[in-house]
């Protein structure tokens, strides 16, 4: 199996050195032959950093486990293999007026990956995270045993596996509860705002009356235009399509260019055009779900546009009371560094708690920034964004990360030792090795010294 295919979406970290198929991985685990820290499940490679990599071991390609096992159109309960794509779940359930309650910014993630990262969408204020809608999951561990996990059966493993970044074993299958919708189409409204202060004034009220809400920020705009953007709100249309449209667009980036195409002149022109096109009318309009939820899925392999060094994504969340100072500080730090973000997204998280032991969303505001990898200059900026986030009482998203330090991870997720205690000894990721394992070794050294 060609290991170079098994790369993270950011393209800034090396591809997996070794890969095996799902059947081989299952056989190793059932036979009790998996060595310590040797395995990690690999879904569809949509994680931006190295949480889907195991540079010292082998990744297990889960995409061959792609069956929808059971579906009840009356209750909305769907059971599927861990390697099924969310696009396939949408296509299967759409004719019955059902849709995933939580959907991330791409439909090309596996069911197991959505659970392992406890992904969120544009409606966290209404539906919480993906893990809130998982009824049961089937987990295979290196002791050869298969565990049926739910809120009542093997509950500790259930909570650790949701948001556990694949470290508790292989997610063979799961049952999720879908939500009923009148149609797949979305009635979208784009509301321009002059600055972040106006956005914050709009955001909470928008959440109260809309299923979906997300803001686009013109990250390059400074001076009196600093923080301007568009707030997109949406609800499922009462009358619209019940058929899933073709997953993915016809456009693609066939090769990786030798330089970053998404440079500052391009981004300046793109932001101006995007703001004009999307913000020229405040009237609601009915749009297809693909364009509303998955605008970047329309261009296959768009991440290649960042060139040979790839990109880093930084996603932070800060408490509501700190957001009016922290979010402008994050954007200002990027402008001072001369770094342009292709797509800058700001959302409000609600108070619905996830069942996950470790989950990134928490009440407050989350800002996502994409930067081309320019080496040490970009890494220095990301460290500054980490500092601003943590000092504001916030957290940095681990499954979007490729370089955060162990201390930043500990500040973001102080409950990490509880996941380490439930981690399957045969499973390890590059992310966990450079963060939690370093913390664990440091803690063990302190205990030994005492």
UniProtKB/TrEMBL annotation:
UniProt domain FAD-binding PCMH-type: residue ranges: 9-181
PROSITE patterns named in the record: FAD_PCMH
DNA-binding listed as a keyword: no
GO terms for MF: FAD binding; oxidoreductase activity
Keyword entries, A-Z: FAD, Flavoprotein, Oxidoreductase
Domain of life: Bacteria
Family: Belongs to the oxygen-dependent FAD-linked oxidoreductase family.
Protein name: FAD-binding oxidoreductase
